[in-house]
Write a structure and sequence with these properties.
This protein is α/β, with parallel strands linked by helices. It is globular, with a radius of gyration of 18 Å.
Length: 220
Amino acid sequence: MIKLTNIEKYYSNKFVKTWVLRQIKLEIKEGEFISVMGPSGAGKATLLNIIGMLDEASGGEYFFYNEPVQKMKEKERTRLHQQNIGFIFQQYHLIDDLTVYENLETPLLYKKVKTSERKSLIADILDRFQIVAKKDLFPNQLSGGQQQLVAVARALIIHPKLILADEPTGNLNSQQGLEIMEMLKKLNDEGTTIIQVTHDEQKAKYGKKIIHLRDGWIEK
């Protein structure tokens, strides 16, 4: 599904290169659940953003279902991302001036899903996440746990092949965090590939494989 070969990321000015990722080699098969761990500044979020096509590597090769991502134009990468990847962020990244319903509808509009199908998909996911009563509320009217539920629902509504979760329980209490992790586990059991970044060793154990990053390198 995903193959990274010697992926590197750096920022440079006239005199100095600041390295974020160094020679990352990684293969992820369909249906895997990968946890990425490491201290702050290790490059975890950058790696996730490159896999999610929100950022470009400075060097190396990235293949997504055998398609060479690094050779694509931005429009092609955006299409590939929107069709296949659901992102869950620690800070939720809901759109403040849209209701819950409208936030859920946004990725479907990007995919040009027809109105009748959009309504059906949104109704199904509101029911699945038990947030029907919240559909007309705005994000600032929801608790942190409710906002994260909406963010997860929004990531799942396109039935993505891959879910990328950046500290998905970081702002939640322990019970809410457990519920989100169990939900991700269930999705993985149903076949969805998941890559999560986490500082929490207990949450990392939900992954079938744990990758440790330090100073931009994968630790052997």
